[in-house]
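EI: anyone free to look at a 66-residue chain?
SC: sure, send it
EI:
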Amino acid sequence: MQKKILQELNTQYLPNVLIAGSEVESENSPLFQHRFKEGQDLIYVCTNGACQLPVTTIKAALELIK
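SC: here you go
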């Protein structure tokens, strides 16, 4: 996850939200398996063990969260 996206998400008040990211493919963590796409910044919003389709903008991610 680009640091710019992370910094912008951290400016929002998001109680009970965990933000995790990776800049490289990681098969060691189930959270990141099959979610890394080279050259793309994808944001997944997951609740109750299920993830929505990835979005590419912070605005779209915030709409899924709120």
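EI: The chain has a mean pLDDT of 87.
SC: 👍
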